[in-house]
Amino acid sequence: MTELALPKIDKDTISRKDQIVSHLKKFTKDENILSENEEIKPYETDGLAAYKQTPLAVVLPENTKEVSEILKFCNEKNIKVIPRGAGTGLSGGALPLQDAILLGLGKFNKILEIDFENKCVVTQPGVTNLGITHAVQHKGYYYAPDPSSQLACSIGGNVAENSGGVHSLKYGTTTNNILGVEMVMMDGTITRIGGKTLDQEGYDLLGLVCGSEGLLGVITEVTVKILRKPQSVRAALIGFPTVEDGGNCVSDIISSGIVPAGMEMMDKALIDATDKFSKAGYPKDAEVLMIVELDGTKSEVDGLLNKVSEIAKQNNSNSMKLSNNEKERLAFWSGRKAAFPACGAMAPDYYCMDGSIPRGKLSLILKEINELSKKYNLAVANAFHAGDGNLHPLIMFDGSDKEQLRKTEEFGAEILKACVKHGGALTGEHGVGIEKRELMCESFNNDDIQQQLNIKNSLDEKNLLNPGKVYPILRKCAEEGRVHVHRGEEKFPDLPRF
Amino acid sequence: MSTEEKKNSQISLDSEILSPSTEKEVSEIVREIYSKQLPIEISGTGTKKGFGYNLQTAKKLSLSKLSGIIDYKKEELYIKVKAGTPIQDIEKILDENNQELAFEPIDFGYMINGQSNKGTIGGYVACNFAGSRRFKVGSVRDHILGFKGVNGKGDIIKSGGTVVKNVTGYDLSKLISGSFGTLVVLTEITLKVSPKKQSQITVIVYSDEIKKISNLFDKILSSSNEVSAATFIPEEPSNKNYEHTKNKIFKFNDLDQEGSFLAFRIEGDKRSIDERLKELKIELDLSNFKSSILDVHQSIPFWKKVNNLELFSGTKNNVLRAVMPPAKCETFSKFLNKNYKYYIDWCGSLFWIEVLDRDDEKINKIKNFIVENSGYLTIVKKSENFDFQDTLFTIDNIRLMISKKIKESFDPKKLFNPGRMYRDL
Prior knowledge:
Chain A has about 500 residues and is of the alpha+beta class.
């Protein structure tokens, strides 16, 4: 991989390791502090497995008081701290540093209160996203944001990254679905933001913290909104003979006033790949394939689904299936959900990109990506959350060939720059982390970035909390890595990624 | 060019009211006031002037000339406007394209002087007060995709963009929403827009019993039948100092004038409305209540009246806005009932309360009750020449400390709306 610039290592901190570890034992049980190499190894990387760093030590506190004492101590002694949830993030937001303590929130794994009266759940940050839905589904409720890693990713990490998912178009991302947090600042101050009310008084600190990638505080408790499950959910599986037809159909559906719960798109390369991998029975004559999911009351869903199929026909669709039961609906999704592992089977390595563009530019960007694919002579398969313009191109390459690796990185950076050029964003849902840090200047000028750094500086004066993430260290647009998967050996191979 | 226009184009700080017409001019003015340490009051058309503390600045910065639609992409569901654009202008163009701002902007003009005046989008974002659909679709901040503005040093800054999914850097669009103009002078705002629903009806359920009302709110919130607004309008205590009564404001053919009532709205196409109405009647046990239905022609103006605080139209009294956890609806209603003129919106979460002139003891009692019950309070109208001794906002010391640090990171010399939100911020 391209060499990654990291914050200057404080050799003094490393030389004081033993002293620091013994001091940390004053705040939490001995067994919660890992300092031997073999104990630390699992924490060397997160979902962006291409980058590895060994932290000074790993601390796994058990309660907010311990977090507060640890942070206060580190702040006083100038020790860097990297917070970590489940470590499933794809942009390297939890990448350790050699002179930093890795603060794992894994022991914060309990749901504290299920409050059906206020339609919310109060939970510790280490609870998984899906764990919340499991706790309330017996009464017909669920937690709406659904990142593909929801089986393993923690709700605290979701808050840090403002995670979205397939259903963000209708239900929003994490920031639209949380009511409050408890957070510990770098100086050890414990604060509660929001609670069980809608909105909050004063500055929207909840909005600031959500998506701040662990740079402003450590989340120790989250209150999330829960929703009643929709009465009816149906999906349409639609094939189109050209990319333009599919792209136009997406725009036409939105323009007609329909807000689908989810709207996914796959290109020919991915249809072929998934078909070989999962036997989902996708149409072979389609250049692009769309899954449109609608939810609501029964007659509403039936009516909208008919409207969607009419719009698709007007856009020259050449195949269409409508789900009539849950089994059929899940079968539609099976291929889409197998998209990433299918790519893993096609080439030794693949890079997963994450960017977003205006919906109307979908066919344009697909064309550009295909042209780039020819230019770099590297195969690419495309999966889009088309409804909200979030794309995940998967570039296939052989990592043992250094020249291919370099070309892949260039290819990826060109895609992201094209996203920004077309009015989109560098990252739709994976976050900036270390991955896209140096590309920030594609979207922001110095004044924009300086304002964000001023906020960081005001809440963490010594820049000790998760340093080296999100904001460019070089302040020039270097081109760096994406999610690198070698021979299907993902950091979390069992997690579906879509 | 008129004399006044000439004056403005030169960005002179001589006049009391500065009215820049470009973003660059805003930046130049702020650079000037930064070097001279001159605090300013920022306003659009002044409809939210009464919110927070009174300001004592010598200069005012009016954004009324920074007006106009920059870019509207119907199929991309966004509109980008200059910050001083009147909300009516935005609503008009959206309406022509069968779209709307889902957060239902409140018309505070009625409360201020009895006349419609929605003010500018910048002012609206600055207060982040969403209308009746809040519990269903989110607040104003949930509909801001991006913005441009000028910070306290005169730097032009931006955040967000035009796409829904964007997690690049801190989400400053949220932070500036509800900051009452104390962090940046907004120059450009990109809003998410939504398709309009085909039709709507409103169901009126008559009851004076708080327990039953709060139970109905809970059932509505728990329903998957997507009710998009729910309010409770109680019979007010008789007092000649109240300008309006509910019977005077809510006059509709199918609305019975006797007693208190709860109203909820169902939106969608006709078939879907009928289907959901049928199910809601069972879910809410409506056969045990007296009820009636407002058709679309009555339902639309009904919610305008609720949303625009017409019950407090032209009032000389104080108006308070309190937000409570939904489960506290019953206890808070009991505390207020028969003692205050009030009504409840957001399906049991939002309380609008009118308190008679100069009764700060009563206001403190209400404030204490709210804080004890995990809610928060904002005073949105103060009776004339009455500034409260105690702080208006219900914030704890730690969050106040964090807020001060954030304020400093945007506006280090505290020039923008000084003291509007908190005394020394």
